[in-house]
Amino acid sequence: MMDMTSNVRPADLARIETEEQAKAFIEEQIEITRAQVGDGKVLLALSGGVDSSVCAALLIKAIGKQLTCVHVNHGLLRKGEPEQVIEVFRNQMDANLIYVDAVDRFLDKLAGVDDPETKRKIIGKEFIDVFAEEAKKLEGIKFLGQGTIYPDILESDGVKAHHNVGGLPPELDFELVEPVKFLYKDEVRVVGKALGLPDGMVYRQPFPGPGLGVRCVGAITRDRLEALREADAIVREEIGKMDPAPWQYFCVVPDIKSTGIKDGKRYMGWPVVIRAINTKDAVTAKAVELSWDTLTTIRDRIIATVPGVNRVLWDISDKPVSTIEWE
Ligand code: XMP
Fold it and tell me: Is the CB of 282 under 6 A from ligand 1?
């Protein structure tokens, strides 16, 4: 059996490209997990991102109700995400899923805070606090499931580690269960498909831990955050029709207002800024050329349906010098 205590990918683990290979990997991880966990209980923070979702689906297959998933809705998720997590994991996979509505708690803490790193710190700390509180309510947890993947181990000084600072507090210091820790992202997706997760989850583009919080530029307000969430859903739907779709595509709503005119009356509204980039490793990135058709469809849909927005812009900046996110 694979040595899961090591942090080096086993030399005999061939790249997982086919469903058959994924199934063999899943079977082996089921055995490994059962041997590690016995009849113990495992807790997992399930964000709904690719890594935590695949990890959860695998652990559900291995140990069923011995796994408790906690999904924290911090109010900064994309449109439809919490609903999808509940539908897939609670309804379809019959998992033990605790859904925590922490929207007010996060947004109250973030009110008036405009410094990006302070925003990140608040979101990160609050997340750990909420998760630890849920863990405390449960009896007999011995293990912590984590969707660590191989690049996380290789790049412990990489983007994720750089942005998502802070380790686990002592009350969450459980033994780790990390079934996909030797896999690269593309392999995680193949395994996710083989586990029956929906494409919308498996082929999801990267999404920062602090979520829409770093795209609602400046001090977050609920109305501007809602405008961002609605506009983001439109941008993702329209740019997602491109084949191939860009590596990452989203929008931001900066904290500025400009004049608009509607029914002969002037009013102030926010701009939505479209951003689509291609990159290999997120260290450098190139803006992706969008067609006029795509841009105008996005513009028309946003202007017609998103309250408070009166202007649509396109960010054509490369990294460097512009980072991918605006904050
Ligand atoms: P930047 O903006 O630094 O982004 O060019 C590079 C990649 O990292 C993602 N990103 C984050 N990911 N927590 C994360 O997990 C964060 O705080 C964070 N900030 C940026 C970004 O979406 C891009 O893919």
Answer: yes
CATH of domain 215-315: 3.30.300.10
Place of tokens 């016995």: 38
Segments making up each domain of the chain, as ranges: 19-202, 215-315
Give distance in angstroms: CA of 94 to centre of ligand 1.
32
Query: CA of 44: how far to CAs of 97, 135, 150, 268, in Å?
Result: 10, 10, 18, 44
215 lines ligand 1 (CB under 6 A): no
178-231 confidence digits (pLDDT tens): 999 999 999 999 999 999 999 999 999 999 999 999 999 999 999 999 999 999
Two tokens, residue 275? 């951003």
Superfamily of domain 19-202: HUPs (3.40.50.620)
Between the CA of 327 and the centroid of ligand 1 the distance, in Å, is 9
275 CB near ligand 1 (under 6 Å) = no
**SS3 state of residue 60:** helix
**32-59 tens-digit pLDDT:** 999 999 999 999 999 999 999 999 999 9
